[in-house]
Amino acid sequence: MHGSVNHTTSVLKTCHTETIPMVRPRLDVLSFPEDFLFERYRFSLQSITYIHTLLHPYITNLTRRGRALTSEQILCMALRFFANGSFLYNTGDAEHVSKATVCRAVRKVCLALKQFLQVFVKFPGHKPVRAVKEEFHRIAGFPNVIGCIDGTHIPIIAPSQNEADYVNRKSIHSINVQIICDAAHIITNVEAKWPGSVHDSRIYRESSLSNRMGQGEIDGLLLGDRGYPCQPTLITPYPEPEPGPQQHFNVAHNRTRSRVEMTIGLLKSRFQCLRHLRVTPERACDIIVACVVLHNIAIIRGEQHPALQIQDPEEDLIHHGDFQDGRVVRDLICRNVFGH
């Protein structure tokens, strides 16, 4: 990335058509050692092959004219962009192709992975609900939990339309992404469509999952931070816990809910492109969804974790009034579980 700062603004957004002369043969990336593959692509050879088998029908080039890319090259180019977060022309240079070619590869793979969103991201998970609750209960004794929820901001460049909507409370342009996970760091729900100025609580309130939970369609509780109002199915900590049961409740709540902070940390560590997406909001949302699908594939297949970068909690500073019936449920759990 040395000497590249002045050329970074036109990356995916514009997809310039200039080419880099192909004076070197293209790399046979899958012949490299496993540690190299993980560093570059965040996956083992076996998992890259698995992902390629899934996506091949969606990303293969219809023509084989000239030096058309193979579907393996298209996939590896996109994986490298997701993993390293490097500017596109650097990614392109490493794979010996043009920036425009990398742009098209990333787009093609994003749209292909989007086809698998409902397959790999399912609430409350692929396991039986009882098993999901048991795994959460083993963390700190908190009962009936089927997911932990949080919002996380993915920085983007200032968009040309509705720019002010994307400015978050840290004065950064971003997409605010809702993440719900299980106890094994699998993401079971993602909402990646809201500008950075929108609060976590509104994103949840307007989600279809909120309606399903409110209507009792799914039996269980979500745990969230104080950025959400306490509701019968979304339990938040006591704002000012009294010594004894309320403090025990908050400790167990915090230990359990930390799974979502760790899950978000893993997602961003594995896919460093999410540190700052230099693309339009629409493209950013597609990249975020693609990374979530890949994250779940990595967890399910037992891929090694990258070095974890846990950021400061992004708790929404606006504390919303708790619902009366939410406080009743919280008090019941506190008394019956943590009051002994």
TrEMBL record:
Q: Name the InterPro entries on file.
A: HARBI1-like, HARBI1_animal, HARBI1_dom
Q: Where, subcellularly, is it found? A: Cytoplasm; Nucleus
The answer to whether the entry has keyword Hydrolase is yes
Q: Which residues form the DDE Tnp4 domain?
A: 149-296
Cofactor(s) named in the record: a divalent metal cation
Xref: Pfam families: DDE_Tnp_4 (PF13359)
Out of the domains of life, which is the source? Eukaryota
What is the recorded name of this protein?
Putative nuclease HARBI1
Q: Which family does it belong to?
A: Belongs to the HARBI1 family.
State the taxonomy lineage: Eukaryota, Metazoa, Chordata, Craniata, Vertebrata
This chain's function reads: Transposase-derived protein that may have nuclease activity. Does not have transposase activity.
Keywords associated with the record: Cytoplasm, Hydrolase, Metal-binding, Nuclease, Nucleus
Question: Example GO molecular function term?
Answer: metal ion binding
Cellular component terms (Gene Ontology):
cytoplasm; nucleus
